[in-house]
Each structure stands twice: as structure tokens, then as C-alpha cells.
Amino acid sequence: MHDSVAAMLQALTLRPEPGGSDTFVGTSIKMPHERVFGGQVVAQTLIAASATVPSDRPVHSMHGYFLRPGDDTQPIEYSVDRIHDGRSFSTRRTQGIQKGVPIFSMIASFQEVVPGLEHAEQMPAGIPEPESLPAPAELFAELNHPQATYWAAQRPFDIRYVNGPIYLEVTGPKVAHQAVWMRCFDRLPDDASLHRAALAYASDYTILESIYRRHGVSWATKGLSAASLDHAMWFHRDGRADEWVLYVQESPSAQGGRGLCLGRMYAHDGTLLASVAQEGMVRVPN
């Protein structure tokens, strides 16, 4: 198994604290900047909340706020509050706590699977197949830099850009939208809750890039300061994070040092799996 996939699975395996306190402890994947990856915290929070809900009530939505940067050398404690259990819905509030203070706060809703009205936005047409696009390892083969090494080989997901990556520079039109294909490098266990958590994990990688692309800002822009402020996700249908997922993203607005981005995740066959929204702080030197 790819080392980064094994590390992700380890991070998503939380240890319950004794005594039935609905408290769980997780470890973090090492990052080049020594801060906990936001997608990891979102996924771990979902795992913790899901552990307190019957398995026949999958999560359908979550809304969270990033409160403080996390330290990837220290464990994170996840405390779950069972707010409500109704006839078909359950609601949980979960906080990720490190060094005695919360770093992430989330509320999530779970529902029994029931029949109902069905429709979905169609996947965009004319998208090239993922195998026709360059893999991360190809893009950074000749760059000797810790961040490039991380992008190339240390993430658990293979991420391929339809519009070209913006790691070092932005090429092509300055538009506030993009699309990426992504899938986990290795096969994951057949656990639907794990695949939902893995999709949440991956949803934080590129979601803010539509802002950067619109303004010609690359990740390598000197003085760029960015951070996720909140994260919301709606899970429409089950899918696999170890099969190709098309992540379509757009930014409808940026102002005041903040930008809003929206995303939709499609299975390779066009099934709409999830919708994502995130606002981020984005500051660029004049």
C-alpha cells in the first residue's frame, strides 16, 4: 500500500476514550508546514460523529469552522455531543480539541435512507479522461523542494488537473472555475462511511484554487497567505474515493481578503456524489 494511503487510514482510525464519553483521539499526517491538513480534521470529525449514530443513518450534511491551526505532532481529541435523535434524523456537534482549546467545530446531520424525489445536476460534458492528464509525479519529477515532494508523492490522492495545475504558475485564461480528477492511490475497505470521510478529506485540497486562478495567483506566489475558514459538505449519494471522482469547482465572489468557493463531486459515470462549499482567507501582497 502507498505510504500516504496507509497514513491516511491510520489517521482515520480513531481511538475511543474509555468510559463511554463519546470522546475519540486521532493522530495526524505529517505536513511540510507542520500544520494539520484541514481535510484530515474534517474527515476525522465525521468519523467521530458517525461512531455515535446507528449505521443505518449515514451523514447527509456537515458544517464546520476552522478555529485555530493544528499541530501535526500532537494528538487531537474529538468530543461528540448527541444533540438530537429523532425518528429518522440524528444531529451531532463535534469539536476537535488540541492543547486544551478547540481547533475545529462541526455540526452534522444524519438520516435514515428513504425513497423520495430524485434529480441531479449533470456532470459537465467534454471533460478529458483522467488517464490522459499528467500525474503529480510527472509534474514535479525534477523539482527538489519539500512542498514539491509532498505534492508529487506524499498525498494519498492522485490529483489531475483538467485546466492545468497552478502550483508554480497560472497559464491560460484567468477564470474563476476549474475541474480536477482525483482518486485514492490504493483500494480502500468496503466501508461507505470511510469513503464519505475520504471524500471529505480530499475535498479540501483544491477548493480555493478557483480564487487563485481568477487572479493569476499560483501557490508559489511570494507572500501568499491563505487559510480555510469554514467547510460545508452535502452527501447526496454513496461513491468510492478509490475510483476516479471529478471535482468541479467555482468561485462566485472574493472580497475583503476572503473568497467563497463551491464544488460538486461526480463519480466517473456522472453520478453526483456530493456538494461542497468553503470560504477561505486569501491575502496577496500588492
Count of distinct strands:
13
- Main β-sheet: number of strands, strand sense, barrel status? 13 strands, antiparallel
| Oligomer description | single chain
Helix content: 10-25%
What's the pLDDT, averaged over the residues? 94
* Beta-strand residue percentage: 35-45%
H and E order: HEEHEEEEHHEEHHEEEEE
SS element count, helices: 6
Give the N-terminus to C-terminus distance in angstroms. 44 Å
Which class best fits the helix and strand makeup?
A: alpha+beta
- What's the overall geometry? globular
Radius of gyration: 18 Å
Q: What does this 3D model show about the protein?
A:
The chain is an alpha+beta fold. Strands 1, 2, 3, 4, 5, 6, 7, 8, 9, 10, 11, 12 and 13 form a 13-stranded antiparallel β-sheet that branches. Helix 2 runs antiparallel to helix 5. The relative contact order is 0.15.
Q: What is the gist of this entry?
A:
This protein has helices at 3-11, 38-50, 136-139, 146-154, 192-203, 209-214, and strands at 15-16, 23-26, 59-66, 76-85, 89-98, 101-111, 157-161, 177-184, 225-228, 230-235, 245-255, 258-267, 272-283. By secondary structure, it is an alpha+beta fold. Strands 1, 2, 3, 4, 5, 6, 7, 8, 9, 10, 11, 12 and 13 form a 13-stranded antiparallel β-sheet that branches.
